Amino acid sequence: MKRIFSGVKPTGHLTLGNYLGAMRRWAEVDQHRSDALFSVVDLHALTVEHDPARVRRLSRQAATLLLASGLDPDRCTLFVQSHVDEHARLSYLLECTATDGEMRRMIQYKEKSAQARESGQSVRLSLLTYPALMAADILAYRTEEVPVGEDQTQHVELTRDLAVRFNQRYGHTFTVPRVTHPPVAARVMDLQDPASKMGKSNAVGAGIVYLLDDADVVRKKVMRAVTDSGHEVAYDREERPGVTNLLEILAACTGRDPKELAGAYASYGTLKKDVADAVVEVLRPVRERHAELAADPAYLDEVLRKGADRARGMARPTVDAAYRAIGLLPA
Ligand code: AMP
Ligand code: TRP
Asked: pTM, whole model, 2 decimals?
């Protein structure tokens, strides 16, 4: 069976973007047709300023939401990245494979480091080396497919380059993975600023639908979404980014085609109302299941313990092989 790996960072509350761009497909499709691993990648949350207690809380919440959105621990491996040492072990070898120029070219690094500097903060070295750790997450499991939102494409491309380079220099060790995206909503935009991604660590929450928002909060956020000048409901990312984002969200929630949906609406108001209803319906079962799971923390602990045991067993042989291939003496 095909090996799949993907992850989510506990840097904020999970959003509709995470759900439509990644998590829903992991639960509905990926875990059924492949040997899939999903990880709360907590080490990645340390690349920016963070509060330790909040990271712990968000890690549990993210794992609970992954179960609530339908990941089944009998069908996939769900675990926390820092519970499996192999990620950090392999990351170092990939830092020895990559160049600093390659890391500096990453869009996410450029954006986040510029933001930090603007607000007078220093940039952690780990923000620069982050893609080496992400590549380690993927390559440690001989992953074939990485299902993610569009924003992660460049990181997966770099992972491929590192795998090929390592294999050429030191002998075949890694599988070269490929990226996959959902057919719609691979990039859900902020409802207040349709030029930027709906991101969980954005400062202002008015344009972000969180998975745990109450139904009336979801409705308010959708009804207040920024739309474009003009009145006609048209699917056009360049000219009508706000409306197009709403059409994509509606399409993803209802399984319809966004261009066809555009033709079905005469006004922005009716479109927004249907989007609000659709999002509330999609999130309802996730919230209900989250509440049940949150009442039983011992169950989550057990799932994560078993998941880490299984993941460790899978990663260990590949990481050991990489250590030998690169010239390190077996212990
Ligand atoms: P992150 O929140 O950066 O840890 O992302 C976890 C997963 O959700 C990754 O596969 C991202 O590509 C995906 N994702 C995050 N934000 C969005 C968004 N606004 N639209 C689509 N996918 C997203
Ligand atoms: N960098 C990803 C993000 O910001 C999260 C991530 C870390 C990831 N390691 C991964 C995704 C490995 C897929 C595979 O969304």
From this structure: 0.96
